[in-house]
Amino acid sequence: MHTYLFVDGLDLVVRSDSRMAGLDPRRLLRPGGPLYPRDMPRTVEVAAEERPESGPGRLTVRVRLRGETVIWSDLMYPGVDDGAVEEVRFRLRQYLGEVQRAYAAVLQTRP
Fold it and tell me: How many CA atoms lie within 13 A of 83 on its CB side?
C-alpha cells in the first residue's frame, strides 16, 4: 500500500521521481505522524524507490507550521506550467481535515 500525495491535482511523488512510491499511509497519515505539522520544522521521508538503483533512493519534504499555514518546502518537481515547484502552502484546517480523511479511508480498507 502506498500514499499518493497530490498537490494542485499533480502527483508530487511521481513528478519528483517516477521510480519512487509513497510510503505506507498508516505510517505517514496516522494522528501525530510525520505529516502532521509542528512548530519546529522537520524533514519527512515520504517516498522511496521501489527497486533501488543508484541515487538517493528517498524523497523528503520539509514540513513546518507558520501560524495557520502548513508549508512543505525543499521540493523540486515540475508544476502545471512546467515551472519548478519548490514550496507549497496549505491552510491548516483544510490540511488536517484531508490528512484525517485519508487516514480514515485507509483504516476502512484494512483487511
Answer: 3
| Cell numbers found for residue 45 | 521521508
Digit-by-digit pLDDT tens for the chain (111 residues) are 888 899 888 888 888 888 889 999 999 999 999 999 998 999 999 999 876 555 567 889 999 999 999 999 988 787 778 777 889 999 999 999 999 999 999 988 866
Kindly report the pTM of this predicted structure.
0.85
b vs e for 42-60, b when ≥16 Cβ sit within 10 Å of the residue's Cβ? Answer: eebebbbbeeeeeeeeebe
C-alpha torsion sign, points 100, 88, 69, 44? positive
Beta bridge pairs of residue 73: 62, 87
User: Of the candidates 67, 71, 107, which has an alpha carbon nearest to the alpha carbon of residue 90?
Assistant: 71
